[in-house]
## 1
Amino acid sequence: MSQQQHLFPVDGKSRVVQIARRALRDLASCDEATAQGAGRNPSDRNSVSAVSKRIFSSALAPRSTALMETLCALKKEGHRSPQLAFDLIPIVARQLGDAWNRDEISFADVTIGCARLQHALHQLTDISENPVLSPEHRRLDCLVLLPAGAQHTLGATVITKQLRHAGIRIDQDLAATPNTLSTLAKTQVFDVIFISASLSETSDTLRRLVDASRLQWADSKIILGGTFEAYGPRAIATTKADYVTQDWQEALDFCI
């Protein structure tokens, strides 16, 4: 989940369609718009577009150390670790997927590149806790879920790190099933449950996870995020999640 999309409730008809279409338009244009940030020319070496290209290339470089070397160089140039971890790494992950869809790189390239990005995310250890939310937000207990068998742990890892960085109490289950949730519910209660869902998931898989979550934590708000949103309102509605968004801060606003 990044901070580019709008939150909307899953129920409803025309309003959902309207907002979903707007969100998908935003998703298609967000990289271009972000690259122009603050009037910056996208050809500028320090623009998001230029920096993401450097990270993209190093993630696929023959040397496994190339990515961390690039990130260290970017930090010396003035790029802060939170920006690299929470903004640029997710952008590059999307770019890897897009390049694979265009047959420009192999699935092995995507797998290796995303694994390196996730390793780099963990290596950015100088991201100190920086509570930026209200006391009401920080009182929330959150859980990040990834369906068992999912291959896209990077997105769930990013949102978990973002929430911790903001001072939110957070746990995660990266191979979630009804059984793992039942075990977790014996010791913990959560106010908000984030489900990271990619295009590889099905509505049935996500609905079972939503049902299992609601069975264990009846009062929790269930937020769906990730590229699954591209399937549109009808598929989203069948998951029975409470809200769909790519903006975790906006999601928390709806949970207090």
Note: Residues 96 and 102 are 10 Å apart (CA to CA).
## 2
Amino acid sequence: MRVSTQLNYAGDIRAAADQVVALESAGLDLVWVAEAYGFDAVSLLGYLAARTSKVELGSGILPIYSRTPTLLAQTAAGLDYVSGGRFVLGLGASGPQVIEGWHGVPYVEPVGRTREIVDICRRVWRREVLTNEGAYPIPLPTGQGTGLAKPLKLITHPLRERIPIWVASLGPKNVEMTAQVADGWLPILFVPERADRVWGEALRRGRAGRDPSLGPLEIGAGGLVAIGDDVQGVRDLSRPMVALYVGGMGARGRNFYNDLARRYGFEREAELIQDLYLEGKKKDAADAVPDELLEGISLVGPAGYVKERIAAYKEAGVTVLNMTPVGPDPAAIVEQVKEWAQ
């Protein structure tokens, strides 16, 4: 397995970039930069391209509704060029709360739109004269706009015409689509021992229709990493995040992360976390996150135990271990995990 990490986009981004430079020296293979409703990810990715020389730089993720498909393709080509071919385009639908509440765009047809965007991006990078039908009509049909639209192709020549595309997806239909058309898959709250029961059938269906030229599907998943005999309490650092996603990312009946926890077998706990969170009792919601779930999504414990967790992720098909190192020397943790992940 290769080793990646998720940049802390909500804090001091200059300090976060300094840490990426240090982790690159320790052997980090890839860093993901998220975009929610703080600073945009593209600015930071460009900054990181100038500050680093070897580590791959991934958008993890750019929401598909916040930009046109062609702008996503242009942005990816630009970041790939300035980084010397080190960019990975991570895409995702995000959720109704952010897309409709922040961007003011209807959250509709996420699976079909993602598939269409992946196809458009690859055609843009091949410098095809672009036309498209479907959710994104390109050029605009006669009768819409000024009537002056005409098909165009990318002016500049991309460094690579096959920039890797990874998709963050959770639901069965979205995961099936991801396995069929994307280079990589970015699940969240990934419990390797329970992954097959939740996503196995969707992955198998998607892989059955996969274009062989794409190669094997990569999977990036992981969690907090702390190594030692007295680090079990580190898992609790994930409680607020899990409570936010399972309890607060969406409404009742429309929370993808809550659905995921239920599919893992935590039906009662998922309901309780959501009830507490939506009542404003965020600490109680965090306390209600089951220890078993926290253990499943992390790699925290003595060296032998962490090695076992790495093996479990490998067994579940993970090719990129996405880790958050916790300890006084994050670079040393990256070095150690990278050695064990070989």
Note: The chain has a mean pLDDT of 96.
## 3
Amino acid sequence: MCVNHDVPQAKVVSLQGMHRRDIVRSLWAGTMVLGVSGAAGGCASAAKFFAPSDEQLIPLAAEAWEQTKKEIPVSKDPAANARLQAIGKKISAVVPVENAAWEFVVFDSKELNAFVLPGGKVGFYKGLIDFAENDAQIAAVMGHEAGHVVARHAALRAGQQQATSIGVALGGAALGGVLDKGQQDAAMAIMGAGATVGILLPFSRNNELEADKLGVDYMHKCGYDVKQSVRLWEKMGAASSDRPTEWMSTHPNPETRIAELKQFITARGYATF
């Protein structure tokens, strides 16, 4: 289910039986993904319906990974590399992913960032490793990235984008007999923007929050202090004053992540605040 970020809940519907006026209204508001028959049940259902399989994604991810290692210098810092390998080995050992070819690489960049590709390819920028106060904070990020793999977020995001593209295209076709060319182009632009803000971005933010929570579970299983996940986002919040407004971003703002993590950690009984 999509998280409601000050926009109505998105859902997959069929064109059959809908008046064109209602199609236009829903698409402009960014509250609907037009899907094929049987692909009902909300954003998650649409994403799953159109999501590519691991067999399709993992070879592509492997190619992208090798290309990334050619384009971005790999850090030669032995301490940073050893640290990441040790933490990655611990986290990956408790992650429920079969036959993942985990690989952990430190990239020589000052960026405060990390990423993961399907199949378990995890990249950390050295800036983030240096920024972290302790191994538990690195484990929080590592767990988060592993959570993306477990939840198949890359595949689901691809599926959601496909579903949304189809919906906008079908909406445009439905408008063909109602509006002239100029009006139709304007309507398509509005529908595209509405779908991005009302569907794709909230979907992405929800994925990030889910990965945060999965990461906490993996941290806890490895014996790391889960409260350090909150501390990391407190630091990140203080270091990122120029971030975009949350509803226009693919990621929740640090304040949202902190609140969600505190609630989750407390509910799990891992720690109290």
Note: The longest helix spans residues 181-222.
## 4
Amino acid sequence: MSTSANDDLATARMWDAHAPDYAQLFAPLTGHVARTMLRMVEDRLPPAPRILDIACGPGDLAVAAASLCADRGGGAVLAIDISPAMVALAERALAPLGAHARCEVRDGQTLGLENAAFDAALSCFGIFLFPDRPSGWRAAAESLRPGGFLVTAVWRGAEHNELARAQVEPLMAALPARLTDPPPRPGWAGLATAEGLAEEVTSAAPVADVEIHVVDATLALPSPAAMWRGMVGNPITGSLIARCEPSERATVERAVLAAFERRAGGRDRPLVLGASCHVLIARRV
């Protein structure tokens, strides 16, 4: 198996493990953003739209898109994800709308789909995490008919995003120095600004007429412990936590939970955090 294939398999397994917690804890937030993305372009789509959902997760965007097709009496949705567990969740959510949707396990960096087959390709917090983002943007755009819409959501920087600050600040303060010197910088950090996002997407993909909108939302978790569980399972923050020795991890957990409890006002109180993202809309040239 090639190095790339091994990496893809490892990525799929991480998201498989995180899928139940993601669906329970974070999908209420990301699903809201996904539905907002679709709403922004639905009146610009043809009467029976062909819609591609890339990195579909548990299926919130695909369900909204399939419901739109059902309401219009035509159209179809293809939801894809590299994680079989996420695809299984999406299949379950889409079952009542089966005539208008199907799910497949596919790598969004290559897709392997017919070019110019879709009226819209949407990715809610998906492509921006790909190891090879330029290939992801290009594959998404090439799946579109001329004039079709590429729509994606990417988190804004921590200065605009309480959700990011609440996780990153206590985690970085508590991690051992060997894991934070130099401070880790997410690979997608350059996309956190509207300018950086537009530049990367238009450089990689045949799109134009770019619009970027700010979308704010709220994440409500039942407790500080739920947030810690979500961070441990998340392939991004979890990969840092996993590098700790057992004694280090215990120290990190106590410190991060204490920070969450201060924000919540107690260990049995809900943790409510604001979040902010950019939604990019562009047309296939």
Note: The two ends are 36 Å apart (CA to CA).
